[in-house]
Amino acid sequence: MSSSHHAKSSDTLGKLYSKVASKILADSIHLKRGESITIETWNNGLPFAKKVVLESRRIGAIPLVVFEDEEAYLEGAKSTDKEMSGKMGKHEYGLLSGTDTYVFIPGPPLSMFHSGLSIQERSSSTAYNTSWYESAEKAKLRGVRLSTGYVGKDMAKVLGKPEDKIIEHQLKAIIEADFPSITLAGRKIAQELQDGALCKITSAEGSELEFQLQGDTEVEDGIVDETDVSGGYNMTYLPPGFISKRVNSSTVSGKVKEFSAATGFGLIRDATLEFESGNLVKSESKPSKKVLENILQSIKEESRNLGLFTIGLNPAAKLGYSIDRFVSGIVTLGIAFRLNVTLQKASVTVNGKQILASGKLVS
């Protein structure tokens, strides 16, 4: 990259960072004068963290920045005593209990695309997740998590796009998103996603997959209000824009064909998965055979089941920028939190009522 291109890119991102900081503090977490705000960032998120600090000061809030160094994290994840890996200290619990709002800008090592850690090392080093979210819920803080932080050279290589272009698109998908419209669309669909309801997904080429819905329903609309906090949903994704529902894995039967998926092993294209009574019984992809085999081998056989069903709600998001599940009308099926199967132009019915027709939300 030439110095002039780098300078232009930095200037473009800087302007977008300012707009995003203003929007999320006002519309996502409703930061007020006198409140405390903690900004947790890695190396790549420092330019944005600075904008959040400045905007917080302008509002009259009190910011504190917590920094995680990528190089130190990677080295530590490989050398830390296994019994202590992924543990939270009392100082971090205290920090959470003492903050009103939180902005989390993760680093590439936390992304599924990062090759610096083995799957086991990554899993062990992030074992604190449950404790962190339980503590955040108890503290009733209002927080956001930015997907831009996951963008690094490994992700860019898999997606075949420059890092700055991926980040730029994700930032625009925040700025241009109409949070209230996403809220309304999500709540409308949520009314249909009742426990025990039969969900049928028809792929664009006609294959069908059926399962019963069971468990939590979550609308990611980019807003954390009192209802979200009281319900324990006090951290929201940015960019925003999907509704998700847990699946009764034992009831999954049928197949999905011609789907795509971005994984840490590479892109999967034109693939097929077939389930019988909850079990994955067939998988194939001629153009991405090795990638599909690698990702499935990384998942224990007994865990290769469908657990999450998602519909995208954000018209400002586009495919190919690591936020596919947020794209309006896109169906995503989550397998063991490692393989997200993305279906374009799919149709969805719940108890016979159509909620998605060929990738379009039914009004």
Give the topology.
Elements: H1 3-28, E1 36-42, H2 46-59, E2 62-68, H3 70-79, H4 90-97, E3 101-105, H5 119-125, H6 129-139, E4 142-146, H7 153-159, H8 163-175, H9 179-190, E5 198-202, E6 208-220, H10 226-230, E7 235-238, E8 242-247, E9 253-263, E10 266-276, E11 279-284, H11 289-297, E12 306-312, E13 331-335, E14 339-343, E15 347-350, E16 353-357, E17 360-361
Parallel strand pairs: 1-2, 1-3, 3-4, 4-7
Antiparallel strand pairs: 5-6, 5-15, 6-8, 6-9, 8-12, 9-10, 10-11, 12-13, 13-14, 15-16, 16-17
Q: Can you put this structure into words, describing what you see?
A:
The protein has helices at 3-28, 46-59, 70-79, 90-97, 119-125, 129-139, 153-159, 163-175, 179-190, 226-230, 289-297; strands spanning 36-42, 62-68, 101-105, 142-146, 198-202, 208-220, 235-238, 242-247, 253-263, 266-276, 279-284, 306-312, 331-335, 339-343, 347-350, 353-357, 360-361. It is α+β, with helices and mostly antiparallel strands and 363 residues long. It has 2 domains: 3-175, Thermophilic metalloprotease (M29) (Thermophilic metalloprotease-like, 3-Layer(aba) Sandwich), CATH 3.40.1830; 181-220 and 240-361, no CATH class. The strands form 2 sheets. Strands 5, 6, 8, 9, 10, 11, 12, 13, 14, 15, 16 and 17 form a 12-stranded antiparallel sheet that branches. It is globular.
Keywords:
alpha+beta, 12-stranded antiparallel beta sheet, 17 strands, 363 residues, 5-stranded parallel beta sheet, 11 helices, Thermophilic metalloprotease-like, 30% strand
